[in-house]
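yo, Fimbrial assembly protein is done. seq:
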Amino acid sequence: MSTPLVGVGVQVSPPRLLPLLIALALVNGQVSATQQPIEFNTDVLDVQERGNIDLKRFARAGYVMPGEYSLVLNVNQQELPEQPIQFYPAEKDPANTEACLPASLVQQIGLKEEFTRQLAWWHDGQCLAIGSLDGMTVRPDLGSNTLYLSIPQAYMEYSSPDWDPPARWDDGIPGLLLDYNLNAQTQRQNQNDNVQKGYNLSGNGLVGANAGSWRLRASWQTQVDHQTGSGEPIHQKFEWTQYTAYRAIARLRAKLTLGEDFLNSDIFDSFRYTGVSLVSDDAMLPPNLRGYAPEVSGVARTNARVVVSQQGRVLYETLVPAGPFRIQDLNNAVSGLMDVRIEEQDGSVQAFSISTASIPYLTRPGMIRYKLASGRPTDWRHRTQGPLFASGEFSWGISNGWSLFGGGMAGDEYNALALGIGRDLMAFGALSFDVTQSRARLPQGETLNGGSYRLRYSKNFDQIGGQVTFAGYRFSERSFMTMGEFIEMRNLGVRSQSSKEMYTVSYSQQFRDMGLTANLNYDHQTYWDRDANDRYSLSLMRYFNVGRFKNLSLSLTGYRNQYNGLNDDGVFLSLSLPWGNRGSVSYSGTWNRDDNTHRVSYSDRVGDRGSYQVSTGWTRNGALASGFYSHQADWAQINATASAQSGSYTTVGLALQGGATATREGAALHRVAVPGGTRLLVDTDGVADIPIRNYGAPMLTNRYGKAVVADMNSYYRNRVNIDLDQLPDNAEALKSVVQATLTEGAIGYRRFDVIAGEKAMAVIRLADGTMPPFGATVQNMKKRDVGIVNDGGSVYLSGIQRGETMTVHWDEQAQCELILPAVLPADGMKELLLPCRALAPKATTTDLAAVQTNAETIR
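structure:
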C-alpha cells in the first residue's frame, strides 16, 4: 500500500516504526557493564541505502554528549527541582561522559553529616566522585529530562513518604501575590409596611512579596454599607490591619517574624504587638510530629456569613448554607481568644467566643521547643499601647514520659513567670499542670500580684472509639492579670473582664455497632466581676439503610450559648438520603427561642467543579425559599446565595475568594483558601488549557501555559500532576507529575514537559536531492525530538506548529533546517515534502522567507 505525496505526483513507502527496528537490530548487539559500544546487526533493517545510516546516538547505552543540560534530579524516587547539570568526559574513560554533581547540588541530596565528610571530588574539585559512596549510582535519561540517583538509605537523613529533610526544602522564586475574599449582599426588608433596601460590600485579604527566603505580607480589610432611602450617607472604610515579614530558619527548625503579630504562646494569653519573634515551628517536623489548628463549629439557621476575628482583625470569612458547619482550615499560628459571628440572611446574628486551647505541652525526649518574642503592644490602628516587653518559653523532653515547660514575660510595668510539667500517662492519656504568677504596676500606683493555675488532659479511648480532644481547667485569682488585661487597664482605666474559672471539654464517641457518632463540646467561663458565660453542644449522627434506600444519614444537634447574661438555645434536626447519581434530598428543622424553621432541600453536583442546593420551607412568619451555588473556577472560588421569606425579606449574596500570583516565570489568577499561603506555579511550556490536578477540582493552564496551585502544605512533599484523561488531543505530556517541598509562604516553580501541536507525515530532501541518513532526528526550536528519520527520508512529526522552523541532526550535530508550511494537511495523514537547507552562519530574514515560499510551493 502506498500513500500519495501531497502536491507531488509520486509514490513513496509509508514510514516504518524505527523504535521497533532498533529493538530488532539489538539481537546481535551486546553492552557490557562498562557501557561498551553496541554493535547493531543492520542486516535485519529493510533500508534501500545501507551506507546511509546514522545510529551513533543509539550505539552507546546511556551515553550523553558533553555539555550542559537542564535536568530534574530524582533521588531515590524523590524529585528535586530542575537545574543545570554539566557532563564532562570521564577521567578513567574519556570515551564516556559523567554527570558533574557540584557541592551545591550534593547539599540538596540530604546526606548525613558523617558521610558528607567522606566524599571525594574530581574535575578540579568541582564534581562529586560517585565511587566515594559505595552503592551510589547515577543514570541520566534525557528522554524524560531526568537524572536518576540511587543512594543507599543508610547514607541519608531521616525522610518519610511525604516529608523531606531540610536539605531539600525549596524557598521558591521571587514574586508578588494578592489574595482576596470579597463578599457582596443586597437585601430588601419589610418592617411594618416599611420597605428598606440596602447593600453591603466587605472584603479582606493581603498583598505580599517573596524575596529569597523572606516573605513580606500586608493584610487589609474593607467594608461598605448603605441603606437606600434612609437619608444616611454610604459608610465605607478601608484599613491595613497588619504588616509582617517572616522567614524560615531551617537550621534552628524555627520561624523568624518581624513586624506586627499576635503573641504565639502556649502559656500566656495572646495579644497584639509590634516587634520580633523566633518560634520553633512544628510544621518543620515530620507530619506525625506536627501540631493542629483550632476548629470553629456552629449551626447556621439560614444561609449565613461566618466571620472569625481576633481583636478587630478578620481572620476568616465565608458563606455557609443553613445547618451545622465546621471550619477546620484556620491558620495553625492563630492562638488565644477568637470572636465568632454568624450573620444570618434574615438579619439576626449569633455571637460567641472560643479559646484556641492546645493539647498538653509534651515534647519528645531530648528535644527542646521554644518561643521568643520582644516588642511593644499595639492596637489595630498600629498605635503603641504599652511598654517594651520580652517573653520566652520552652518545653524540654526530660525522658520518655516527662516534659518540663515554663516561661517568663518581663517589662517595665508588667512581669509574669510560669512553670509547668507534663506527663505521658500512656494508656491513661496525657496530662499537664502549670502555674503562672503575674505582677502588674498600674498607672494609679497600685501593684497587683496574682496567680493562675491550669490543668489540661487529652486521651484516645481506642477500644471504645472515644476521644477526649481536650479537657482543661483553669483558676485565676482576682489579682491575677494577663498582659492583655494590663494593657486595657493601663490605657482605659477599666478592666472589661476578670477571669475566674474556665472549664473546657471536647469529647467524641463512636458507637460502631450502631453506626452512631456523638460529639460533645462544653465551655464554661466565670468572672470575678460579671455573669458567667457557657457554651455547649451535643451532636449525634447515624448512617443507616431503609429498604432500597441506602446510606441515609440522620443528625441531631442541640446547643446553648449563654453570652453576656443572655441564653440562646436551639435544636437542629436533619435527615438526608442519596438521590440519583450524586444528588441528595434532605429535611431539616430548626427550633430556637425566636422561630421554628422547617426546610426541604435538594442538592447535587454540576460536573467536577460545581454544586448547588435549592430548598423551600416555612417558619412562623411565612414561607421561605433559598438557593446556594458553589463553583470552583480556575481563577476563584465562587459562592452565590439567594433567600426570600414571604412578607419579610429578600436577599442575594455573592462571594469571591481567589488570588493573583506574578513572578518572572509567569503569572496566573487562581483559587486560594489560605491567604498568603504556600503555592506552586506550574508551567506547561506555553501550552494552554492543560488540566492540572492536586486536590479538589482540576484547573486549566491559562493562555500562557501557567497555573498556580495554592494552599500547598508547607515543609511537606506535595505532588501535582497533569490529568492525562482530560488532555487535549493535540497535546502530549512527556512528564506528567512534579513534586515540591516548599517552605512556608513560598512560591514554588515547576515545569511540565508538554508538546502541543499538530501531527503530520513528511519526506525530507536535502539540497542535492538526497535524504538524511536513517536514524537522523528532527528537533523543534525547544531542542526536543519530534521525529526520527526512517527509510527513504520519511518521518512522522508530532507536536508541530505551522510555519515552525526545525533542524535535522546526525553525526551528533545539526546539519540542516526546514520550515513547515503555514497550512498543514487537515487529515494529518498526507505526506509533506520538506526541503532541508544547509545551516548558514547567520540566516537572514530574506533567506527564511525564501525557504518558506519554496515549502509552500512544494506542498
